[in-house]
Amino acid sequence: MMILNKLFVVLLLLNLLACSLANEEPMFEERINAAPDYVREERLADEIVDTLLDGKAVWLKTDDRDFLAIDTLPDEPVKGAVIILHGRGFHPDWSDAINPLRVQLPEYGWRTLSLQMPVLQKTAKYYDYLPVFKYSHQRIEAGIQYLREQGIHHVVLLAHSCGAHMALDWLAANGDTMIDAFIGVGMGATDYQQPMLTGFPLDKMQVPVLDVYGADEYPAVLRMAPERKAMLVAAGHPVSRQAVIPQSDHYFSDKGDELVDIVVKWLFSLFVDRD
Prior knowledge:
Helix 4 links the parallel strand 3 (about 80-85) and strand 4. The protein has helices at about 1-20, 30, 40-50, 100-105, 125-130, 135-150, 160-175, 220-225, 225-235, 255-270, and strands at about 55-60, 65-70, 80-85, 110-115, 155-160, 180-185, 210-215, 240-245. The longest helix has 20 residues, at about 1-20. By secondary structure, it is an alpha/beta fold. It has an 8-stranded mixed beta sheet, sandwiched between helices. It has 10 helices and 8 strands.
């Protein structure tokens, strides 16, 4: 990990130096010392809490502050819980991909805990977010601890888009012993001329993995799909799989039901059939 971190700094420095010379981006020091936009997070939280219809708002703790999560319980006995991480710049009740998962999974017995992930200003791109990935680690672990303390046995981590980058960064640093399965949705999405600086750790994972993406995804997600599938095969878990949703874009616009269906069927085969 130390070598990868040094490589990341060197590559990011070179990229930012080139951009700053073109007067297009902030200097390296500003980028590397970036912190989440907490004011924006608070504004998003206020809007969500005021309009929340399903689930309840809870405030989880990290070392430096509290952050919003939405806890949605099923009516029937709980089979397990799914922690949901939204994409770049969004929030834990985002309408396109997150809300359908958050609200519909409890209908099948799965409790959901949707976390507010670190956000930056609306114009921020993939490389802007890299230095704030570290702030996501404590949030993921706070969500896991919250559910474990309430007796949840099966905890699944589900992450979309930049949330998947944050989840994979956490997994690369900490391993997967704290979760029971991982679902990556739209993994590998970045920005133009901003390729991923570290690879997927999927081949090193011990827990089962579901890799879901849309047939009309961003080019990077589609291009790296064979690589991700090969990693799942290399990891060797018998129930890990890759799934494609036809006619779906990266945000699963109007395809929330199809996304939920794939996730539910995989979770059912993974846990319910084996308990």
